[in-house]
Design goal:
- This protein folds into 2 domains: 67 residues, Multidrug-efflux Transporter Regulator, Chain: A, Domain 2 (Orthogonal Bundle); 150 residues, Mannitol-specific EII, Chain A (3-Layer(aba) Sandwich).
- A hairpin with a 2-residue loop joins strand 2 and strand 3.
- With 239 residues, the protein is an alpha/beta fold.
- 49% of the residues lie in helices and 13% in strands.
- The protein is globular.
- Helix 5 packs antiparallel against helix 10 and helix 6 packs across helix 7.
């Protein structure tokens, strides 16, 4: 799926000027068509994941997120709503990430009325392509192509019984997983970027390790999302 510059800025919670700077610096993957800047959703997704696994690169990304802006409206509490539709699953057994994903989906699929075997295979296929670890002990299992046939997104929080090796570049075992199921590509990218930012904060990581229940997690996320700064005006121009 192709995205315009304005869409990338909105979905990643940064100004258009920031995206243009990323393009000028050669940071974000893009291409031109008839002088228009365009971006591949899958390439931007992989870029977000790779930035988050590289602490030096992500420090810059997180700073841009902080100084940029959350658009008000439908996106403001998007993570809260997705978590409300999902759930919190504690003490999921498994010695490997494959086992944890499989065991978690056996429970998540029942609640979402999904085919557990099919979705599990899609999730593992994505992991074989590129691990979805975000460093700092957090992973975001998701698929490449599967979208919910609903008008809402779902994020399910999974706490493995024991931290598991996940293939993260920082070599840290994963203690918290956010299973991401979106209803369209744009909302998928927005939630992925928001989860990446959420997991960059040490206080949030400390909270995850407490294994809060769903009600507690929802309160925490609602407060976190409400604290994100409103959008600032963008600076238009050409690269």
């Amino acid at each position: 799926m192709d995205l315009k510059l304005t869409e990338v800025a909105e979905l990643l919670n940064v100004s258009e000027a920031t995206v243009r700077r990323w393009v000028s610096d050669g940071k974000i993957p893009y291409y031109r068509l008839s002088s228009q800047l365009l971006f591949s959703r899958s390439e931007v997704e992989n870029w977000v994941l790779s930035c988050k696994q590289n602490k030096e690169e992500y420090a810059s990304f997180a700073e841009d997120f902080e100084s940029g802006s959350e658009r008000l409206g439908t996106h403001q509490f998007g993570l809260f709503r997705a978590l409300h539709k999902g759930g919190v699953y504690d003490n999921i057994p498994g010695k490997t990430k494959e086992e944890v994903i499989c065991n978690a989906m056996k429970r998540i699929a029942v609640d979402l009325q999904l085919d557990a075997e099919m979705v599990t295979e899609l999730l593992l296929d994505r992991e074989r392509l590129m691990p979805t670890a975000l460093s700092n002990g957090v992973g975001v299992p998701h698929t490449r192509d599967f979208l919910l046939q609903e008008s809402y997104d779902v994020v399910a929080v999974v706490f493995p019984k024991e931290p598991i090796e996940y293939g993260a570049l920082d070599n840290e075992p994963v203690h918290t997983l956010f299973f991401l199921f979106a209803c369209d590509d744009k909302r998928h990218l927005h939630l992925l970027a928001k989860l990446a930012h959420l997991s960059s904060k040490s206080e949030n990581l400390t909270y995850f390790k407490m294994h809060p229940n769903k009600a507690q997690f929802l309160d925490y996320i609602k407060n976190w999302e409400s604290s994100v700064k409103p959008a600032r005006s963008t600076v238009l121009g050409s690269v």
